[in-house]
Structure formats: C-alpha cells, structure tokens
Amino acid sequence: MNLEKAAEYIRNGKLVAFPTETVYGLGANALDPFAVSKIFELKERPAFDPLIVHIESIESAEQLADTKNNKFHRLAEKFWPGPLTIVLPKKKIIPDIVTSGLDTVGLRMPNHKIALELIKLSGCPIAAPSANKFGRVSPTSAQHVKKYFPQIDCIIDGGKTQVGIESTVIYLYEDSFEILRPGIITSEEIETEVSLKPINKKRKISAPGMMKSHYSPAKPIYILNETLLRKIDFNKAGLLSFTKKYDKFFKKVITLSESMDLKECAVNLFSAIHLLEDSDVEIIIAEPVPETGIGIAIMDRLKKAAYKTMKSIN
Ligand code: TXA
Ligand code: MG
C-alpha cells in the first residue's frame, strides 16, 4: 500500500502495520482513543500494557510530554532517530488508553524512512506496539505480520528490519536513568554518550508490560543446558546456534551469526524463531549467548520466550 493511502487510514482512525528499524509496528493515531482501542482489541493485549508513541520531530515530543529535563535533549540528539524509547511525564493531550492510565508516556523517533514519512503524512503521532498477537514473537518482516493478522488490509512492506529486536526503553530521572527493557542501545552506551548514571537500586518505577513470559513461539522453546542435552530428542528439535558446538546433533540448525557477533544475532533472532516455528521441528532450542552488552537484550528475549517451558523441566 502506498504511504499517502496509509496516512489516510491513520487519519480515519484505522490501523496500519508499518516497518521500523527494530520490528514492525501496528499503528493508530495516538490522539484518537477509539482508534487506539482497536490495537488492544486486535492484539488481544491487556489494557494495563502501555503503548509507545512514535514521533518524527522534537517539537512533537515537546507537545506530548514534559521535556524540560535537559538530559532528554542530550539523549534525543545522540540517539534519535533510533531504537531508544524515552519514558517522560505525559501531557494531557495523550489519551489515557495509550499509557494504560500512567502519568508517563514512552516516546520514540524511529530510524526508518517509511515510518518517519508515515507519521509526517498522517499529521499525528502514531501509537504502535509490535505487530504481533500479545505474548508472541515480534515480527521482523511483513510476512510475519500477515501470519498474525491476515485480516488487516493495510500492511506496508519495508522488507526485513535492520535491528531485529525492540527498542531499549529507558525511564529518565533528574540525573540518572533506568533501563526498563534492554535493547541494542546499551546501558554503557547511554552512560558514556550522555553523562547519566544507571540507577543501581532495585527497580523503582512500575514497568507494566514487562512480563516474565513473553515472545513465545507456537512451539516449546528451551535454552540449552546440560540437563536438556540429556533429555532432548534431537530428531525433533531445531537449534538457534551461537557457537556451532552442538549443530551436528540437531534436525535443523539456524546460525544466528557466523562470526558470533551479538548485533548480528539480535538482527536474526526473531526471524530465526519464526522460521523454526513454521518448520517441521517440534521443539526449539536456543544456545545461550554471553550476557554482556547487546547479549543482555538477547538473553532477556530468550529467557522470557522460554520462561514457562524452562520452569516445567526444573
Ligand atoms: O522497537 C519498539 O519499541 C517497537 C516498535 C514498533 O517501535 N515497539 C514495541 O512496542 O516494542 P511494545 O508495545 O511491543 O512494547 C512497549 C513496551 C510496553 O510493553 C511497556 O513495557 C513499555 O514499552 N512502555 C511503554 N510505555 C511505558 C510507560 N509509560 N512506562 C513504562 N513502560 C512503558
Ligand atoms: Mg511487543
């Protein structure tokens, strides 16, 4: 679908699935509560899980949220457009349904030509969660979106996404920040680029929507460990491979990165899970990656995807 037409959809209160650099979003006019309610309905998303509002200019951020914290401007300058969502005190103009009644809103300027153009042409900010059924793996291609929502007639196909996992979500305090969802922009990067410290106390603010179980494919997924190695029927299992050490045992293998590059692993993670989900394997096994830098975001997704299945074997 062309962008003019898609923008008309947004203006008319309809939903549009569109690509961003991270994953595909399911968007609606963020200022229209009825349009936003359609997102929750279609995704079967619980009303307590707030949406991210996508914008294309700093002026728009200023209209939607309290941006007086000068660290916000430093962060936006450094990382926007890009895979960083900044949670700020919201202004009244944002309907409560968008933020699940919270007094804060997550804002993000995506680094994607189509997404930015769509927001511009629509003339309004676009509220968009990842375009998957609630709790399932995020889509990194238009085909993935169609798999979840064959009924939506407006999907903009921008090919495979470049980052592959969702944006880093941060909560901004006066002179510190807290990562609510890890992503490819890491805590270290935020610390060095903007002189902000991560808070080292236990989580202070409520982060609804950060469930222990999430990103789950339609087939059981496990994180590889010694116990599992003894229990698995390898003939039925597909592997998300990192080190290649176990490849020879498995029915199907998808290598996340030939050079064990964590950024490349993140790019390929969800599409690899989708591939195994749609293949003839019965279970999916993921090799763990080192939990540093971007590896933190990858393991966050894997642990949530495998939360229920891993509990069942322990
Ligand atoms: O990369 C992304 O962020 C993608 C693309 C489409 O932009 N979007 C995305 O949205 O991942 P979603 O809805 O799947 O995840 C948004 C999460 C919520 O589940 C919630 O945990 C957090 O962001 N969030 C949003 N607004 C918040 C707020 N005001 N306070 C705390 N957490 C918030
Ligand atoms: Mg999501």
TrEMBL record:
InterPro entries, alphabetized: DHBP_synth_RibB-like_a/b_dom, Sua5-like_dom, Sua5/YwlC_C, Sua5_C, T(6)A37_SUA5, TC-AMP_synthase_SUA5
Enzyme Commission number: 2.7.7.87
Keyword field contains Nucleotidyltransferase: yes
Catalytic activity from the UniProt record: L-threonine + hydrogencarbonate + ATP = L-threonylcarbamoyladenylate + diphosphate + H2O
YrdC-like domain segment(s): 1-185
Function: Required for the formation of a threonylcarbamoyl group on adenosine at position 37 (t(6)A37) in tRNAs that read codons beginning with adenine.
Protein family: Belongs to the SUA5 family.
Protein name (record): Threonylcarbamoyl-AMP synthase
Residue sites binding L-threonine per the record: T22, H54, R108, A128, S167
Subcellular location(s) of the protein: Cytoplasm
GO cellular component, one term: cytoplasm
GO MF term set: ATP binding; double-stranded RNA binding; L-threonylcarbamoyladenylate synthase; tRNA binding
SUPFAM superfamilies the UniProt entry points to: YrdC/RibB (SSF55821)
The keyword Transport is assigned to this record: no
PANTHER family: SUA5, THREONYLCARBAMOYL-AMP SYNTHASE
Binding site for ATP: R45, T104, S130, S138, R181, Y215
GO BP, sorted A to Z: regulation of translational fidelity; tRNA processing
UniProt keyword annotations, A-Z: ATP-binding, Cytoplasm, Nucleotide-binding, Nucleotidyltransferase, Transferase, tRNA processing
Main EC class the enzyme belongs to: transferase
Alphabetized Pfam families for the sequence: Sua5_C, Sua5_yciO_yrdC
Organism: Ignavibacterium album (strain DSM 19864 / JCM 16511 / NBRC 101810 / Mat9-16)
